[in-house]
Amino acid sequence: MLEPMPDDGGTVLMGSLADVDLAAAGYVQSEWRCSGTAEAYRAGGPLGADGRWDLEVADRAAFATRAVVRLPADPGRASGTVVVEWLNVSSGADAAPVFGFAGPEVVRAGHAWVGVSAQWAGVVSAPALVDVGGVALQALQDADPDRYGDLHHPGDAFCFDIFTRVAAAVVGEGGPLDRRRVDRVLAVGESQSAYALTTYVDGVLPLTDAFDGVLVHSRGGPPMPLGHRDRGVDLEAGRDDPAVRIRDDLDVPVLVLQTETDVLGHLYSLPARQPDTDRLRLWEVAGSAHADRSLIGDLEGLLGCADPVNRGQQRFVVRSALRHLDSWAGGGPAPPVAERLVVEGDPSGGRRGLSFATDDRGIVRGGVRTPCVDAPVEVLSGLGAPGASHVCLLFGRTLPVPTDELRARYPSPAAYLDAYAQALDAAIEAGFVLPEDRDEVLADARTGLVTW
After folding, report:
1. Under a CB-based contact definition with an 8 Å cutoff, are residues 120 and 149 in contact?
2. pLDDT of residue 132
3. Domain that holds residue 183
4. In this predicted structure, what is the pLDDT of residue 136?
5. How many domains does the chain contain in total?
6. pLDDT tens, 336-375?
C-alpha cells in the first residue's frame, strides 16, 4: 500500500551541500508511506565468491517504511528513467549520497528519483556505523515520532525485498509516477548501500527482475549479509569476510564505481576486482576518496581530521556513470572501458603488502583520470593518515605541493589553466566527464594555488 504523507516540509533526509536546488531545477518532492509484506531470503546453496548465488524465500513479515520522490514538476520533461536510491544509513540516519554526487545529472536529464528507506537503521534508532564528527543524527522514528512513529521495520533480513516492493509500488498504478512515462528503472547505492546492492545483484535480482540496470558505488570486498529479523546488519563484524564478485551471467548491466579508499583503503575491495564483460563495467577513480569535500564543504572541520579531506572530482565521474548506465540499460552502447588503478606488492599478505603505484607527483597511476590528477596542484589521495579515525579514513586526504615544485611545473597561471583544460578535454573525450559539466569543472580549478 502506498499513501502520501503530509506535504508540510517535514521530510527527514540528511542532505549534502552538493544537493541541487529542486525548486530552481523545476522539481517537486513528495514523501510516501509504503507498507505491505516483505520476504526474507536464505541461501539454497553455497554463497560462492563468483556471486552466482541461489536464494530462496525463508520468511515473511509486515513492514511500513517511507520513500522520498523527486520529479520534474512538468510531466513533459520526464525522461522515462526512474533512479531508485537505496538510502545510506551508516551515520545512523537516512542519506542520499548518490543524489549528492549526481543530482545535477538527474535533474537536467529529467529523471525521476526515489529514495527508499530500506534498512532497519534508517527507520529504527541504532548505533551509527560511522560517527560523523560527533554530529547527532537520528533515525526517522527518533527524528520525528509524530510523522514516522507508525513505521515498522522487521529487520534487515527483509531489506532486500522491501527495496524491491517499494520501487515497484512507486512506479506502479496509483503511485506518484502513475500515468507518467516509465521506460526503465535503475537501482543505485553508495557505501553501505553498495554492499547491499552487491548482495541484491548476486542473489535477489535474478529472482525479481526488478531493475533494468544497477550502479554500485563504493562497495567493499564482501557483500552485505542476508540479515536477521528485528535487527540491522553489522557490516563492521563482516568487514574481513571473503570477497565476492558481481555474478557474470547477468541479463542487465551493472556499473561498479570505486574510489581509492574502496580499492585499497578502508573498504579493501581489491580481492573482488574482476574483468569487464558485456554486462559489467568497473571504474576505479584516481585521486578520489569514499566521501569528499564536495559533499560537506566547510563542515569538514567538524570531522576532526588532521589533514584537509579529499578534494577530488569523483562527482563528475558519478554523473557520467549514471548517464552511461541509463543509455546502456536502454539498449545503447556499453560505457567506456577504464584502466584499473595500479597496485604494487605481494597480495599474499593482504592489504599490508600492497600499495598504489604513484608518479613523481605522488598521484596514483592508472584508473579513471580527471583534471585534478592530470594537472595537479595538490596530492589527492583516498587513503587517510595512519591512525586516523574511521570517518577520516573514509574522507581521504589533500596534501600540499611545495611552491617551488609548482613553479617548476606551471610557469604561470595561464600555463596551469591550459594544462588543466587539456586534461579536462581528454576526460570528456574518454567519456568519463560529461560535456555539460565542462564549465563547472573549469571553475573547480585550484587557481588560488598558482598566483605568480
Report:
1. no
2. 62
3. 2-252
4. 58
5. 1
6. 999 999 999 988 777 888 999 999 999 999 999 999 999 9
- With vertex at residue 296, the alpha carbon angle to CA 266 and CA 110, rounded to the nearest 5 degrees, is 100
Record the cell numbers describing residue 119, joined without a space: 534498512
DSSP β-ladder status, 213-217 and 184-190: parallel
Residue 149 inside a domain? The answer is yes
Tell me the pTM.
0.96
The verdict on residue 375 lying in a domain is no
CA atoms within 13 A on the CB side of 124: 16
Nearest-angstrom CA–CA distance, 72 and 28? 6
**In-domain check, residue 11:** yes
- Interacting residues of 218 by C-beta distance below 8 A, sequence separation 6+: 190, 191, 194, 257, 258, 259, 261, 262, 267, 290
Residue 12: C-alpha distances to residues 59, 127, 152, 182, 431 (Å): 30, 18, 16, 27, 36
Query: Which residue type does 337 have?
Result: V
Find the largest Cα–Cα distance for the chain. 67
Assess contact for 114 and 69: CB atoms under 8 A.
yes
pLDDT at residue 351 in the model = 84
Cell 556499453 -> residue: 334
Domain-embedded: residue 331: no
Lookup: cell for 418: 591550459
